[in-house]
Design a protein that fits this description.
- By secondary structure, the protein is an alpha+beta fold.
- The protein has 3 domains: 108 residues, Alpha Horseshoe (Serine Threonine Protein Phosphatase 5, Tetratricopeptide repeat); 77 residues, Phosphorylase Kinase, domain 1 (2-Layer Sandwich), CATH 3.30.200.20; 158 residues, Orthogonal Bundle (Transferase(Phosphotransferase), domain 1), CATH 1.10.510.
- Strands 1-2-3-7-6 form a 5-stranded antiparallel beta sheet. The protein has a 4-stranded antiparallel beta sheet with strand order 4-5-10-11.
- The chain is globular, with a radius of gyration of 22 Å.
- The protein starts with a helix and ends in an 8-residue tail after the last helix.
């Protein structure tokens, strides 16, 4: 019996360890890792564990289209009708993302869609599942300063018994720019859900500060990883690149308006317990209100990440992604370390030269297209994902040796 098993059986396992276990389990489900999920189920974890938003492994597998995972969870007697914070069941999510095979599996096993199969009713305020955070709920005991992103002072604290990240952003960031977050944007951010974006939990206005509460990931960021290795091997770089591209594609495909990041950086790409990257600080552009020098408070212009210049801003994200991929493979180049600037993201101006890595020609061409100053050549994240998946699959089939880790 391992020490871990002994801790579990004796009831001495810490809450932190328990949350990490749940995080690993849900991560396996969302990524379709049947081997990892099977092992944890055999070791006795409940198939019904939930995350911050009451979402289970079945919710995540149904959303991502992993039919074998859904079948496995059903085999282990998972509850087929758990409701998340928005009253969605796994069948609700499977229908929303048009995974018809999963819909059939869930329906045969008694799955119900409470949203679409029931008549609409007016929900009273008291019935709302909206998360409201009060600063008095933040437990500062055993808190610690952490490096999670670029735009604020972050601290690990406990909220309702769970470790989260409290990020303080001064409401007066710089001349002519203040920080706000409308109720509408606050709700929008809380409802975003994807395995490759950091979970936003809520915000608090406290005096002259805006406090953001987000998911805590204990394994640092991409900048930390690259500081230990000058360059990453090809397979690792491709895996990280797919994580970033999938998360960014989810944000850019948001309806009715794309959510642009505009500040994509290795420091806000966080690593989860399963070793995958999640995108943080995608809310930065939403926070900023620019006051023009010749306008008073009644004539402020809101700069919102979901509503301002979406076409040019999505291209900024593509450009930043291309440079990050180049940086992972070649090393030796750093992002500009500028002060917080909501309205003017700094683009890295460089000509990619592949002197060290031995990555495929198609990846070199992709980086050149992403970082091109000719807008016509810049791909979308949808096409980026397709290229990365094809190159990764080809490399695995050919048994391609990865580039040496420097």
């Amino acid at each position: 019996m391992t020490h871990q098993d002994s801790q579990i059986q004796s009831g001495e396992m810490s809450y932190d360890f328990d949350m990490q276990l749940i995080g690993n389990f849900l991560s396996f489900a969302s990524r379709g890792d049947r081997v990892g999920l099977s092992q944890m189920l055999r070791e006795g974890i409940s198939p019904n564990v939930q995350d911050y938003d009451k979402r289970t492994a079945l919710h995540l597998a149904a959303s991502e289209g992993h039919a074998p995972i859904v079948e496995l969870l059903v085999l282990y007697k998972a509850n087929v009708n758990p409701k998340d914070r928005w009253r969605h069941t796994p069948l609700t999510d499977a229908r929303h993302y048009e995974h018809r095979d999963i819909c059939r599996i869930l329906e045969v096993n008694g799955g119900i869609d409470f949203i679409n199969d029931q008549p609409m009713t007016v929900r009273n305020e008291k019935d709302s599942n909206e998360v409201k955070i009060d600063i008095s709920e933040l437990n500062m005991q055993q808190s610690s300063i952490i490096d999670q992103g670029k735009y604020g002072e972050s601290e690990k604290v406990k909220w309702r018994g769970t470790w989260v990240v409290k990020t303080v952003i001064k409401r007066q960031i710089q001349h002519r720019v203040t920080v706000i977050l409308s109720a509408k944007d606050n709700t929008l951010l809380r409802e975003l859900r994807h395995p490759n974006i950091l979970q936003f939990l809520g915000s608090i206005i406290h005096g002259e500060e805006m406090i953001l509460i987000s998911e805590y990931l204990p394994k640092g960021n991409l900048d930390d990883i690259m500081s230990k290795k000058t360059r990453l091997d090809l397979q690792t770089a491709l895996r990280y690149a797919l994580d970033i591209a999938r998360g960014m594609n989810y944000l850019h495909q948001h309806k009715p308006f794309p959510i642009v990041h505009n500040h994509l950086n290795p420091r806000n790409l966080l690593q989860d317990e399963g070793g995958h990257l999640k995108i943080g600080e995608y809310w930065v552009h939403m926070l900023c209100e620019q006051i023009h020098p010749n306008q008073d408070n009644g004539q402020r212009k809101i700069k919102s990440g979901s509503r301002s210049s979406p076409s040019s801003d999505t291209k900024r994200d593509i450009h930043s992604f291309g440079f990050i991929l180049y940086q992972m493979l070649e090393g030796g180049h750093e992002f500009p370390d500028s002060n917080f600037d909501c309205t003017h993201a700094v683009l890295v101006d460089f000509q990619p030269k592949f002197q060290h890595s031995k990555c495929p020609l198609r990846i070199q061409q992709l980086i050149e297209q992403c970082t091109s100053r000719t807008p016509v050549k810049e791909p979308s994240f949808t096409s980026v994902i397709q290229i990365l998946e094809e190159v990764s699959e080809t490399a695995q089939m050919q048994g391609r040796a990865p580039c040496p880790v420097c």
